[in-house]
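note to self: dont lose this again. the chain is below, predicted strucutre after it. 192 aa total, dont forget to put it in the shared folder this time
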Amino acid sequence: MELFSLLSSLPQLTLFEQPGITHERFLYFCSSYFHGKRMELLKSLSLRPDDPDPQNILRRFPAGSVPRTYSNWETALRGSLAKLRAAKYPGLGTFDRPDAGYETDADSAARRAYAAPDPLERERILDRARWEKLDELARAGHSHAFNFDSVCAYSLKLQIAEKWTMRKEAGAADNLDRAADAVRSAGTEKTS
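---
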C-alpha cells in the first residue's frame, strides 16, 4: 500500500499513444520512494533481455517477479522469432537456444507477427503482445496492485510507449533517403 500515492499519481498509459510522462521523469518521481538497490534495479529495467548483462541483473530480481518473468517471456518470444526466420533459410540449419524456453503465447505472437504483411505491422503485433503480457503479469498480483512489481510493469510499458512516440511518420521519408544514400555510398566505396 505504500506505493499507492506513486502509482495513482502516474498518468495512464495507452499503447501507441503519447505517454503523459517521460521515462526520465518517471524515474525522478520514483526516486522519492526508492533508494539504493531498488532504485538501481528500476533504472536497469529494459525491454531487451540482453541489456546489458541479463544474468547479473535478473538474478537480483526474485523468481516470479514481473521483471524476471517478463524477461523470460521476451527471451522465449525472440527464440520463436529466430526459429521462424531460420526455417525460411533451410541452409542455415535449425535454431536451438536452450535458454530461450518456450511460451505458447510468445510463440503465437511471433507467428502472428511473422505473417504480417509489413515490418511496421509486425512490430505493432509484437509490442501489443508485450503490452498484454505486462498487463497480465501486473494483474497476477492484483491483491498487491500497489507494489514494486507494478512499478516495474509500468516502467516497461512506458518504454514501449516511448518507443512508438519516436517513430513519427513525418521523418519516415528522410529516414528512407538516409538509408538509401548509405547503401549507395557503400556500393560506391566497393567499386572504387
